[in-house]
Amino acid sequence: MRYVNDDEESYWSRMFRKRLTRRQALRMAALGGAGALSAAYLACRGEGPTATVAPGESPAAGVSSVLADYRSRFHYSKLKDLPGQKEGPKYGGTFRFSHYQGFTGAWDITGPEADALASFAPNHFNGLVTFRQDDFSNVHNLYEVVSDLAQRWETPDQLTVTFRLPQGARFHNVPPVSGREVTSEDVKFSLEVYKQSVAQGPILADVDRIETPDRYTVTVRFARPAAYFLQSLTYPVFLVFAREAYERKEEVFVRQPIGTGPFVLERWDPPNIYSMRKNPQYFRKDPRTGMQLPYVDAIEAPILNLNVTLEEAAFRDGRIHTIWTHTRRAFDQMLATFPDNVGQVTTPPPGFQPYITVKLDKPPLNDQRVRAALQHLIDIDAIVEGILEGMAGPGLAHDFSFFGKEWPWTLEELQAMGANMGYDPQKARQLLSAAGVGRLRIKFMYGIGEPIHAEVYRTVANFWRQGGIEVVQDEVPITEIARFNAAFFGKQWGDVDVMGFSFAGPGMDEDQYCYGPLNSRSPRNFYWVNDPTLDELTERQRRQFDINERRRTVEEIIKRELSQSYRIWLVNIYKMAVRRGFVFNVVDTIHAWHNIGWGSKGNEMVWFSRAP
Amino acid sequence: MTSYLVRRGAASIVVLLLVSIVAFLLIHLQKGDALTVKLRQRLPEEQVQQLRAEMGLDKPLWEQYWTWLSGVLRGDMGRSFFREQQPVWDRIKAALPVTVELVALAIVISVIVGVPAGVISAVRRNSLLDQVTRLFSVIGLTIPVFWLATIVLVYGGIWFSYSPPLTFQQFWESPMRNLEAMWMPGLILGYALSAITMRITRSSVLEVMRQDYVRTAWAKGLGEQVVIVRHVLANSLIPVITVLGNQFVYIIGSTVIVEYLFHLPGLGFVAFESIATRDYFLVQGTVLVIGAMVVAMNFLVDLSYAWLDPRVRLAGTTQI
């Protein structure tokens, strides 16, 4: 079934379609006459949530009641029952949402920028495997590997994975690849290039060789068991590309994404627009319905670069179809803009949360008691309730869904695992005294580009001051992001003692939260952690295929990390998204912001029930 | 006149050179460089050094500056560290018309609104009309542009279904689409500027109205329109022009935030983005072009005195 495509209504006709009513005239008069303060007051009136309370999952004990309420009312499990789902997907339409610049414009998915491209490249390429994301998935747990370019795979032993490719999957019809069929040689070539790359290389470190017994079969053989491999391969930048494009790297590969993916790039023109059109020879079908993907004809993503004011104005005006809100108030307001809007409140990813990295080799921070004291001086509940309107839980950059959990760890659970968390100034003073620290002075650097995170860091600084610590705040605006990156990624901390940072991992497998940041040999260990116990444990979990054994090891890792207070954990803020009622399969997931982040893979699943 | 032009031209070059040095030093003296923005991970040190060398960041500062300056003198402003090595001039060339159009709109609006309002306010001094006009002006002077722009975006959407277009087209590509994006930011900047224009016009008109020749004009029985337009307004315009020229700098500064809020890809937007990413050549190129615009505007304002005021023109033979 198909409907007529949506041509955007003329701007001027939209502006003038409504005649000035008496009420509007009065409003205008009121705006001018009452002045700024009264206008702001009127506008700041809260708009209550409109969704009906419905039974949802049981909240874990110890979470904010507001959070439990919102998470229950806007739970992913309700999406499958939305009006329109029964009729099934329809083809057509142009999907519009706000995007951000994100990368430099070089489409080199094998280069140092590949992490950043994970939010863009899945629109144009396919990996071998991926994760589920639609209105019917458990988006709070992505530990289910599903086929992408590989139709199926076998793991006959712990040292072998064999992938079977479909016949007839073709690259985009763009020179020099010109729509030729994808073969096992392309997969082999891609993986071998990734093996040398910075972003993907560590995940392929245990690969011994890659074989191509026939045109549609790829066998990956490992030197050592790699339990993390298949799940890690769903990381959205393990994408298959063509040798002839890669070999003309500067003229072709970097200039344009030529993959097998659902959309062909039309324009990458920051800060204006990122647009793409449907790939007419796309091979993939919707695993649930069996229908050919993608459903929409095109995607137009104005690059608004997180200009929240403009995004909200555009959503109110109906010119974008989804929006991510940063506050509960904004979520409620956006939800109320159209009667059929659909909200979703999603467990936050372990990989993006405000937390604090400590310079572990610098006295007195090299003393565990001092770090524990810093943690005990922070009232996490107060931050959750006071700043984050209840829409957060305690932070920890490990993936709770790896353990089959639907809810992140509560404070009580973290304490039970040995975390020195929980507001206790008395204990903090005792710990500092036991460590022989009288007057402690800390230089605290953090970015203020993300306003909510900045507020969290400022509050932490105040908690520390209340605990008698002299805190020197070094706030880094977005215009000085280079200074921040140089310090964090380049480990040029200078006289900085602790840094507030928002990225952890990132990864699709718990390995990225264990080996990545905590093993002393890992290129992603920016955290000064050098602990032989963690080296052994993080290495061990990589070899354990038995999920229960591996879970036990990972739990040991978490306990070790928490007990040592190697990082200071704060909060994990829930994701709140609103979409128009006629848009389906736009889902936030635990790991991926759909559709501007890693969830961009899900764009091929998006469909409209009617013309916007 | 010729020697004046030569002297002003030489002084302008020195000013631009100083501006470029200051911009270069300010951006380079901060910690972190373009490479650290680009790489969000730890690379082996030799790889970092290789990349730094490829970007020319391993050279001494003076050498980096000279390389850039000699390029500019040859008409090459360098290439962006980001954006696939796009030439800086291409980026500036695309952004320049946006800012010029926005500033032009603001100035036109300010003249259309501010000058008549100032004249009326002065002629009808202390009347209700004067009070209303002055209130309008005071509000314009006290409300910051960024605040007004934010309020328009937030509450314009809530109350009047207003939101600016999300993508931009140049005027010559699609005039209507272009105006969709431009009219509101132009109006906001124009309002801020018209408040100043109105006040200057009012005080200037009041001053001129006290002159003997105006009294003489009234005594000769000339009509109000003739006296105001021909005798008062013409002689009141010089300070208005001076202030408008100076306000050009203020407006250019305000375009940074207005362009960002309304998502207009002008020079202010480019400057903001390039500073954030330490895109050195782009920062320097943008600052240089903005500096050149300011210098050129001041120069034009000076020249306009001679055109507007015959007394300056006559004196200019010996004094300019």
Can you describe this structure?
The complex is a heterodimer of chains A (612) and B (320). With 612 residues, chain A is an alpha+beta fold. Chain A has two domains: 2-6 and 349-573, Dipeptide-binding Protein, domain 3 (Roll), CATH 3.10.105.10; 94-306 and 579-608, D-Maltodextrin-Binding Protein, domain 2 (3-Layer(aba) Sandwich), CATH 3.40.190. Chain A has 19 helices and 22 strands. In chain A, strand 15 (441-447), helix 15 (451-466) and strand 16 (470-476) form a beta-alpha-beta unit. Chain A starts with 10 loop residues before the first helix and ends with a strand. Mean pLDDT of chain A is 88; it is low at 3-8 and 33-56. Chain B is mainly α and 320 residues long. Chain B folds into two domains: 1-82 and 277-320, no CATH class; 96-268, MetI-like fold (Orthogonal Bundle). Helix content of chain B is 79%, strand content 0%. Chain B is built from 13 helices and no strands. Chain B has helices at 2-28, 34-38, 45-54, 61-73, 88-123, 128-142, 145-160, 175-209, 212-219, 224-262, 267-276, 280-308, 310-319. In chain B, helix 1 (2-28) packs antiparallel against helix 12 (280-308). The longest helix of chain B has 39 residues, at 224-262. The radius of gyration of chain B is 24 Å and the shape is globular. The model of chain B has no long low-confidence stretch (mean pLDDT 83). Classes of the chains: A alpha+beta (612), B mainly alpha (320). At the A-B interface, helix 1, helix 2, helix 9 and helix 16 of A face helix 2, helix 7, helix 8, helix 10 and helix 11 of B.
